[in-house]
Amino acid sequence: PLVSAFRPTYNMAVNLLERMPRTRVREVLEQSFAQFQADRGVVELAAQARRKRRSLEGLEKDMTCRLGDFREYASLRQAIADAEADLSRDKASARRSETGRSMSSLGRGDVVVFRKGRRRRHGIVLEVGADRTGTPTISVLGEDSRVVALTPDTAPDGVMRVGALRVADSVDPHRPRDRDRLVQRLVDALRSGDLEGGGKRTRTRSSRAQARRDSAIENLERLRHEMRSHPCHGCPDREEHARVGRKWSRAKADADSLQRRI
Predict the structure, then answer these.
(1) Is pTM beyond 0.70 here?
(2) How many CA atoms lie within 13 A of 192 on its CB side?
(3) Which GO terms describe its molecular function (predicted)?
(4) DSSP helix/strand/coil, 236
């Protein structure tokens, strides 16, 4: 079989660097037959990376702005989008954690308000537990006589405790008579406002989580200020350039990812 005798040396690398830019030297070595024999996958990745870099050059020409470097501006916009997405995920995660803590603090007989579909409903907590993963779950008898199982995922808006009713251990909501009586007590108590220990149990967010969120918000505001202060922000063709800039940001991320894999 044909085997390449090409073996790169330090002197060869130095000589190549004297004649051409570093990026071109890298391409020459990546395209060598010896490299192809050593690892065909790396050569293919290098070819993909080169195509991405050429694509980047074309996109950079399309978003050229006479007011400034639109690559910087596009990077700022992408950083803002990423920061906003991170904040949104953090908010959803925090809300889920808070709902889980609220559910864990409930007990049998607590009356709660929760959203089911588009409506808010009242219900009596029958049982508090956790699934195999440790996620809190509560079993609630609603004012419509239905028993529902709620978790932080099925009750994303959370549950709010508004009071309590005494529910004896002997009461079995699976028995129609017990269930009907319990629902009637709930309806009567809601109409009369006669609920024991009314009020919402609240838990404040941990100082560490709040500090992390405050830092993320501060960073987002800093990025927004930098974007508004950038010369390209005043360009009349800003949004057209930004459309190309979004493609450039995605292509750059792909190119960087490919380069790290080589």
Answers:
(1) no
(2) 9
(3) helicase activity
(4) coil
